[in-house]
Each structure stands twice: as structure tokens, then as C-alpha cells.
């Protein structure tokens, strides 16, 4: 029984990494397929639901990312992270925010905010604030990793810029909302991959 549990633990981390990699394929495809239709500078990633097959592909990305993050959280808990601590809560908010944002789509640009659009927006705010803070706490209290700490700080700063860009930031008339969100997602993916790598190193040491 102990050997079976050990094998499950060993398989969990690669499963989380596989989920992170899988989540990248649909969103990369949507970026390529929508060239000339949506602007990566001004349109958010959520706007891809309005292109062909965008709703399903975006859901695959969001749910795969949420599942991978949940598995990574489970690995951290098995490694000693407190089940009821702030990191677990923050990671849970990240996973929950991704799931809710996938279920409640955004509104088309320029239209009044619907109930679904409002839920999507607030879910996004929660998840974008939660993961950088969770990464920072993990790097300070649980796993000593310079990469996790740096990605957490970068993601936190970019998250603030993304929030501000909703109302103020533009360049030569172009709203920079999409640009900041894409940079933010790059930082968040970097944080999750760095966290998985750090956990793997500690497991082997």
C-alpha cells in the first residue's frame, strides 16, 4: 500500500506539468487563427470566445489550467503545505476563478455589462490577485526558489498594471488591456512551471 501511494505521488507532478502544457495549445492556436480579427494589444484573451470554435477551445485552456493547478496544489499539500493555510485558500481562489470565468463568458466589446460579464470580470480579478500572492508566500515560507519569487513579483506587478489598464492606460489611441493581460498570463505560466520545477527538485533531494 505504501508503494502504491508513493507511485501516485510520483505521478502527480508530471500530470500537473502535462496539464499546464495541454492548456497552452488551444490558446496558442486561437492567437494564430484570429490574426487580423482580434488585436492582441486591445482585445482580452476572453474575447476569443467570439471567434470560430473559440468558446470551446478557451474552455479547454481554462479548465486544463485549473485542473493542473489543483493537482499542483495537491502535490504541495502532500509535501507538507498546511491544508487550511492562506496559500491553500489563495490557490483555491485561483482554481475557482478560472473555472467560474470559463462558465460565465465575457461580454462583447462595447456592449453593456451583463450578469455573466460581471461575474467573469470579478472572477478574473480574484484569480489574477490570488496566484501571485500564493507564489510569493510559497517562496517565502515553504519552498526556497528564486524563480518562484521573481515570477510572483513580476506577476503581481503586471496584474496591477492590467487592473489599471481597464480604465486609464492607452498608447496612441490603442487600449493596452490585451497586452498587459498576455504579459500577465506569461508570468503566471512561468510561476506555475517554476513552482512545479521547484517541487520536483525538492522531491529528488
From TrEMBL:
Coiled-coil stretches noted in the UniProt entry, renumbered to this chain: none
Q: Which InterPro entries match?
A: DUF998 (IPR009339)
Give the record's keywords alphabetically: Membrane, Transmembrane, Transmembrane helix
Q: Name one Pfam family in it.
A: DUF998
* Residue ranges of the TM segments: 12-30, 50-75, 87-106, 118-139, 151-171, 183-200
* Domain of life (superkingdom): Bacteria
UniProt protein name: Uncharacterized protein DUF998
Q: Name its species.
A: Saccharothrix australiensis
